[in-house]
Amino acid sequence: MKQDQAWRLRELAPAFEFFPRPDGDAHPRRIAITSGKGGVGKTTIALNLAILATKIGEKTLLIDGDVNLANIPILSNSSPSYTYVDVLRGHKTLAEIIYEYAPDLHILATGSGILELMDKAADFNDKLRYQFRQLDGIYQRIVIDTASGISSAVFSQLD
What we know:
Strand content: 15-25%
Strand order of the largest sheet: 1-5-2-4-3
Structural class: alpha/beta
CATH class: Alpha Beta
CATH architecture: 3-Layer(aba) Sandwich
Number of strands: 5
Largest sheet: 5 strands, mixed
Order of helices and strands: HEHEHHHEEHHEH
Radius of gyration: 15 Å
């Protein structure tokens, strides 16, 4: 019997719930989906992991960390009213740009191909990391869809 591409992910999915959170831990667990090569399915995996986290009862934030080609809104067929660019410009707060995609699944869109972000990707990640503190106690899981490659901007999303 020929299996589809996702058979191994479905086989591994039950293990996902075995990452218990210590009692009283308010910090969200972060998972970054990254690869040195583009077009390998990072966005698909990130979206599906975020959906899976909600299925096991975790309130989840999915961050589209690819400032070059932000594809989470495309893949999820959603249209963000605001993006992280609005935060950088001082027009919105982080909490104001996060939108609900499904029950217990929220998305933070960065915008796609915006030179302002592409030129300052590492700075963007530093600011985003600082603002993560605002999310403590709100989300149990944060899934980050990174850009492809091994640049400092990608590495800064991983720590």
